[in-house]
Amino acid sequence: MSEQLKTVSAMNKLYIGNLPTEADEEAVRQLFAEHNLTVAEISVKRGGYAFVDFPDQSAADRAIDKLHGYSYCGLPLVVEPSVANKKIVNVPNLQSASAIQLKDTSNDSSNAGGGGWR
Q: What is the percent of the chain where pLDDT is above 90?
């Protein structure tokens, strides 16, 4: 179990938004190098944003401190933890459970005549 927790805490991915549309991986890597920030992996997406993986949490925190709001090519950068960083919890399909509950209660004889909430 502790190994699984290590894996989750080792994910240090940041969302970098408001990049110029012409920005590529090399340009983003150069931006981080200019601020003495070490990155593990960069994935630039169309539409002016990127995801950047850092070797540890302290490096990711430094990137947020240094670059959030920083003017890059005339645009203020948005640098924040990626939503992919959050642990996904397996939640049972509630819609299916509700449909089964409704089916079960519709056959319940104690509900005959009331039709209201129990």
A: 58
